[in-house]
Please model this.
Amino acid sequence: MSKVAICNAESGQLTDICDEADKFAIYEGPDATLKWVDVPDDTTYEHFMCNGEVIHRTTTEDLRVNATVDRILAYGDFGEQMDMQYRDAVNGTTEWKDHVANVKATTTKPDSIPPFVEDPKKVQLVGRKAWEPWVDNWVPPVA
Model:
């Protein structure tokens, strides 16, 4: 069964992903900012539409940023780390060193991820609707 979703013209956000039979009426005139579009069966709310194609959000994210955030969260609060070091000094333990070693072993080092290269075909251009297909050398209309 084919799936459809309502697409926002500017952001490409997909909402109301459903089967074709469950579609309901929306305004789709020439100045409409929403439109029903066909989407692959595996489309989720993690997808968006850009230049007429459904794209998963992770293909447009800098994975180095995600890895940095993951590592910062895994290390935890600075105060807690200081407390671990204090307890290590008082008790002769290695709680803090073990914690840091665990974070390094279980999270990706951001520098090990190749630099992000933005695909121009996955960037929504101002003045174009998200469902319109990519056109080389497109020039925005003059207002």
